[in-house]
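Margin note: ligand = tryptophan.
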Amino acid sequence: MQQERGQWQSTAGFILAAAGSAIGLGNIWRFPYVAGTNGGAAFVFIYLVCVALICLPYLFCELSIGRRTGRNPVGAMLALKGKSPWSLVGGLGVLTGVCILSYYGVIAGWAFGYIFKSFVAPAMSLGDFSANALVAVPLFALFLLFTVLVVARGVEKGIEKSARILMPMLLVLMLLLIVRGLTLPGAMKGVEFLVKPDFSVVTPATVLAALGQAFFSLSLGMGAMITYGSYLPKSANLPTSGVWVALFDTGIALLAGFMIFPALFALGGNPSSGPPLIFEVLPRVFEQMPMGAVVAAVFFILLSIAALTSTVSLLEVPVSYVVDEKRWSRKKSVWVIGGAAFALGLPAALEPSTPALQSMSFLGATGFLSVMDLIWGNISLGVGAMLLCIFTGWVWGFRNAGAELQQGGTMSDGMVKVWGLFIRFICPIFIFLVLLSLFPFGARFLASLGIG
Ligand code: TRP
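Resulting structure:
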């Protein structure tokens, strides 16, 4: 069993892999459209505050649990607390990994297909493209296959090595597209949209949306960072590594904004188009550029790269669980769990061609994929994050967690005390408010208090 458990070759390798997990569709697809519909710069500003004050302290808590125990989320809870209901929190994380992977892989499959679509059928809409089950299902399967092949090779040879190659590629491709966009006449309006805040459009609901987005973007709430942290040696500096991961993730989200909005404003697209922003609006923007099909292909290559390093982390969490706790081989684990994610994701892949799946709704989300995202990508992550804050702050104890953060680094006792305040009070309260805002009764309650 010990041989199956890997360790990062270097702290830099860990930072790249964890940043790879964090940087994904959340940064390049979701962040721009959420920022676009929430007024641009003001949302970006609030987002940055949420990352620094809520997400970062919480990230430290996942990393400290992971490295202290050297186990998957369930094993980590067992190691710290013995048999107790807390291992169910780890179990929720493992389950959430499979479930997010199932629908996230469908969107990633579209992104991959769009690389070729820009040459073959540039005028086709996302609706027509995804409603072709003979295209959408194989693309989804192919994307899961890539993910399985990376995770099968293990922590160092698979996850770390692919991140070392893919993350620099992603950055170079993004910089190319940013330069292309910024050199279009009229691009400055897009830059202004991102840097000149208009705080009159901000409501408390904007803050909660920003916080939810920041949690998803940093891969928090389901123990992905417990798992990645468990492969770190004791000599690694957890707080600085965590800060680097957050900086990379936030930097890429901002760069995604600078990649999309200048081109969008220059060529007359609507920033508040919502989820279709990058699949519908952006391709039309690219079409108006010289060599637009190539630009579009580059964009969807980089989107696929970002998505792959994220699906890898979603698969690694359940895989580490069965490898550690059930003593399965890594090879068997990746195929069985990858297969389960495929089965679970089929309805999401078939939704565009199946009216019954489109009309499903739950708590205001409509369509199978959106319902899955609400349940697993919002509610479950929020519940997991809130319980892990409470666990770290009050049950395991922030001093014990703080000692793990100090090991291998230079965090002072005073800093641990400040961090303890965040993890015991501020973080769980804000996460609770985000959760409340997802439910109609909660949203009404918050509104009656003047929040949300
Ligand atoms: N953070 C990734 C993104 O922005 C998605 C992701 C990967 C994720 N692993 C996760 C989200 C774990 C929550 C939890 O696209």
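The pocket of tryptophan is lined by residues 21-22, 24-27, 216-217, 219, 221-222, 224, 310, 313-314, 381 (CB under 6 Å).
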